[in-house]
Predict the structure.
Amino acid sequence: MAFEILAPSGVVPAIMQAVDGTLAAVRPGAIAVIGALGTGAVIAGQALAGWLLADFGSGVIHWAQDRYGSPRWPLVGGIVRDTIRHHRKPMGFLEKPVLARSARMIGLALVVLTALLVAGAPLAFALPLSAGIFLSNEIHAAAHAKARSLPRPVRALQQIGLIQSPLHHAAHHRHLKNVNFCTLTDWMNPVLERVRFWRRLEALIRYTAGVRIRRDPVVRRQQRRRWKAA
Ligand SMILES: [Zn+2]
Ligand SMILES: [Zn+2]
């Protein structure tokens, strides 16, 4: 009886009907918004995965050159020579024109992009991955350039670490060229260094194939200076 006073017959069904009507009207929009957010998250995840994979790839190539590459190797000896030259004179490659500095990476990026598209990889993954390869040496160059010579957006990207910051990259040159091999972002190196990825990989190569790392002359000089100062 009391319920009927508070909610006379017909009011509750009317409210329920109104709620049902509102939900029915809102549902397609909500489903569309949730769908769009889900699609956006998947695309962002694929893009980040592509960019970080390019960063990891830059680390693998750089590590192989620094730790095992020989300037006398056929075909890739020139690349190793460039890297040794870069360790000796880090700002030197800033004087080169963009094409002279990045032609090899641009070529590699185009090959990777073509292979990924032929294999049916999602564009959201393939484009950032190939863009990362395409730009890797220019981002490396920006990490050596004077801050005032860089456009503001580039400095902003360096600050958040989406492209490598000068301070982060300096650790590679300051140490014995044995840390921070990845040159695209500030995010991949800390993970790899924390799990001692390169050291473990070098130990595995030494134990399984008996191949030891090569130290370039710049590193040997750096070590002698440290021993004398100690
Ligand atoms: Zn460098
Ligand atoms: Zn190096």
